[in-house]
Specification:
alpha/beta
Length: 282
């Protein structure tokens, strides 16, 4: 982040689109930040270039908060412009040209914001992370959508000479951006849910179990909650802990049974009446 020492009239015009009065340059504080990029993050997931191009537009006007706590009391800044920037001289861990979404945000110069502005200037409040949703998450090895198609690859593992990662494709919404202590992306940060689990303490089979429960929820939810759609159901699953995922899966299965009662394909034979063998009695 860096302080914008001079605010142009063009920038003021953009900022005034979000204010009720014509603020002056002396009343506001602006700074730049990297929202997200195409580098593989700590969860072995990454945005595609197409996703970054779409997110750049989606995040204009979005508010800045703290630690993804969606409370109006935490609103502190707002993005007024964003654009994709490429740096061919810099490569990602996958060997691609580095691409990021760089944004400009503003906040009001008030007594309540003095300390925050000082922390931004001093490099204390620096790391940021974004909240958004995507319609598709694809395997970088086979290209399958891990939400709807079978994929035998595990993100983070290497196949041949290529490391598997999940590609975040086709963004559908951008919620907010936050100041955080430890972002998922090393250069900026991205969050796929509002509650993050420390997956490092779990063995690999736990993530496989999570994905199995997620697929069950999407499958049963498609019939019981068709108005939500598979994509939104998947996003909801990403926000849940393992315990809550299990509870949701079991609840949907029970509801499914109530709506579609199990019917045996092999009907029990009718009770036979006792045969009269009196003609053969001696």
């Amino acid at each position: 982040m860096s302080k914008q020492n001079e605010i142009t009239e063009q920038e003021l015009a953009k900022i005034r689109e979000y204010t009720r009065k014509d603020v002056t340059a002396d009343e506001i504080y602006t700074f730049s930040l990297i929202i997200c990029d195409n580098e593989t993050d700590r969860d072995n997931e990454k945005f595609t270039e197409d996703s970054l191009n779409k997110l750049a537009g989606m995040f204009v006007g979005k508010t800045g908060i703290f630690d993804h706590n969606m409370s109006a009391g935490g609103q502190t800044a707002r993005i007024y412009s964003a654009a994709v920037e490429k740096d061919p001289s810099r490569k990602t861990s996958d060997g691609d040209d580095y691409i990021c979404v760089k944004a400009k945000a503003y906040m009001m110069r008030t007594a309540a914001n003095e300390n925050l502005i000082a922390e931004i200037e001093g490099g204390i409040k620096k790391e940021t992370s974004v909240g958004c949703s995507v319609r598709s998450i694809r395997c970088s090895i086979c290209g399958n959508d891990i939400r709807t198609e079978k994929c035998g690859h595990r993100k983070g593992e290497t196949y041949g000479s290529k490391k598997c990662s999940w590609l975040l494709c086709d963004p559908e919404d951008a919620y907010e951006w936050s100041f955080v202590a430890v972002p998922s992306q090393r250069n900026a940060g991205v969050i796929k849910s509002h509650k993050i689990e420390d997956k490092s303490k779990y063995p690999d089979w736990v993530e496989e179990f999570r994905q199995e429960m997620k697929q069950d929820i999407i499958k049963d939810g498609a019939g019981l909650l068709p108005f939500l759609g598979n994509s939104l159901l998947g996003d909801i699953c990403d926000c849940l802990s393992l315990k809550k995922l299990r509870e949701m899966r079991d609840a949907l299965k029970e509801q499914r049974k109530k709506q579609l009662p199990l019917v045996s394909l092999l009907a029990a034979p009718a009770e036979e009446t006792a045969a009269d063998y009196s003609d053969y009695k001696i």
